[in-house]
Design the sequence.
């Protein structure tokens, strides 16, 4: 199982930016799918962005054009650059790595004030 540690969350005003990081305990080159999810209170986690090892990325419609997922294989780190943040982006954000199982980080809180 891959250990994942997120960082970079915090409080930001609407229209601002944050960059989330997800540091993995092992090389991510061979991890085919790495993703960012978010969870609202009382709701299930929803996918925000997906990156596969071939370079293909996908985004939820609600974040297209504002969020960018990327990998730094040399640092074994997944990123989520979040721009033009909105209050509805307020949630706990998790990264996930799909190997033979899905590994999750502990989550990082993002709060966007209006």
Sequence:
């Amino acid at each position: 199982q891959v250990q994942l540690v997120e960082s970079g969350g915090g409080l930001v005003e609407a229209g601002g930016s944050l960059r989330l990081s997800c540091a993995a305990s092992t090389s991510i080159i061979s991890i085919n799918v790495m993703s960012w999810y978010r969870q609202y209170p009382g709701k299930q986690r929803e996918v925000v962005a997906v990156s596969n090892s071939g370079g293909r990325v996908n985004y939820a419609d609600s974040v297209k054009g504002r969020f960018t997922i990327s990998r730094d294989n040399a640092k074994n780190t997944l990123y989520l650059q979040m721009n033009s943040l909105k209050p509805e982006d307020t949630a706990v954000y998790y990264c996930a790595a799909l190997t033979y199982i899905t590994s999750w980080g502990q989550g990082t809180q993002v709060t966007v004030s209006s």
Q: What stands out?
A: The chain is about 0% helix and 55% strand. The radius of gyration is 13 Å.
